[in-house]
Design goal:
The protein is mostly helical and about 550 residues long. It is built from 29 helices and no strands.
Length: about 550
Amino acid sequence: MAWTPANALLHGRQAFGRRQWAAAFAQLEAADRAAALDPEDLERLADAAYLTGHREGGAYLARAYHGRLERSDRPGAARCAVWLCLQYLLQGEANLAGGWLARARRLLADCPDCAEQGYPLVPEGLSALEHGDTAAAASAFAAAAAVAERFADRDLLALARTGLAQSFIAADNPEAAMAHLDEVLVEVTAGEVSAVAAGIVLCAVVEACLEAFDLPRAGECTAALTQWCDAQPELVSYRGQCLVHRARLMQLHGSWPEALAAAQDAGARLSEPVAQPAAGAALYQQAELHRLAGRFAAAEEAYLGASRWVRDPQPGLALLQLMRGKAGAAAAGIRRALSGGSVRVERAGLLGAAVEILLAAGDRPGAQAAADELGQLASAFGSTWLKAEAAQGAGAVLIAEHRLPEAVERLHQAWTGWQELDAPYESARVRVLLGLAYRALGDGQAAQMEFDAARWVFLQLGAAPDAARVDVLLGRHRSAPPLSARETEVLLLVAAGKTNREIAAELFLSEKTVAHHVGSILTKLDLSSRAAATAYAYEHGMIRGS
């Protein structure tokens, strides 16, 4: 069939209906170049551009706005204006968002009885939330939901219910929030909501679950977001954010290599075709995984990359300083982060890290204050995640105060919580604290069991610095490694997280020779794995925060 603008338009519409966004964008754009599209098709083109990560979407939607005005379709033009407002809000361009919202309000002044009356209430509710006025936000979203139900507008209803849930969470009422979020999730996964609205809502639902400290529900919602993205292979928008959420949860559940792969994939997707602010979250997640594995240079590079998007990449950067033995710098960084504004879920993470860092820096009152604030959050929300974090922080402070029986009790509570959440790294860190408490109580056998169990988990995860620290606590200091110069080079590269192929390329050796050296290293040092070899390198000071 010969190419014609009419054929391109037809194929573009068909591709759009099948959710083949890249094909829809290419065909509709070609048709538009040949002959300007009408407003309905411009809106399809705008959606396809947005969903495939092209910045031209806003320009197409603006043209649709003007096209509807020319047809005297004031409600349709107002709807375009509100969607432009929402897209600019998501991009952090508040002035442009406000301008489009003002246009929508002006147009709707003459259209009192239409579904579009509910749309401006969504950005108004978001603005109230941003300014801390939860009552005004809830009122705006409730009014939007009422309009949506009256006119059976599924997109508006999903946006309004998500906003209501966010308002309830901000007002410390997570139970009411979750009822709305569950209903929204059903509507989106059933395909009742348009793709642009569905993506916005799914990402907001995951963030809302995290803000409510509900990790199990966040995992379920992330799985739903993943399935939704996977069903649309040409989707670019949202897929990167989805991978960041997946990486965070994979890290929590101990799947670190998979988490790093997801975070790196997210970073690549969020950098093309143009860089998006969420790329900072992907880089921060990569940095965290590098830090935990002891790849400090790679972690620092990723934190610095994240800082282009995230004002202060904390608490990871401060924890990196602590792992490098720079407790004073770490304390300064975490205090700075705590003094600034942060959303509640981020503050909880800062507080947990602050307890560890400030205790290491000798600031027991500061650590106590952080632990107390964590306890208050746990009491307000009652989530397993917060309770475990708060109990762990309280236990660490109690050890520092030599209130050891109380510390053991709180740490057992923390361990139970982390086990319930299937969080092996956090569980192992609690066992190290339990070992310290038992040792101070004079129960060497119990301390040994806790340290051994924690060390085993750290080695399984590849948490080399933590494993090395436990070896020091256990007094397992071997003599200098009986390795050749070449074996020492290979060991250092293994500890840096490099594969045999990467080591072979760096040292100009064959992979077979590298594999032989790795086997020899493990045999000579009586080690069972590459993770154990990495821990050995840390334990013996062969890697010094490099």
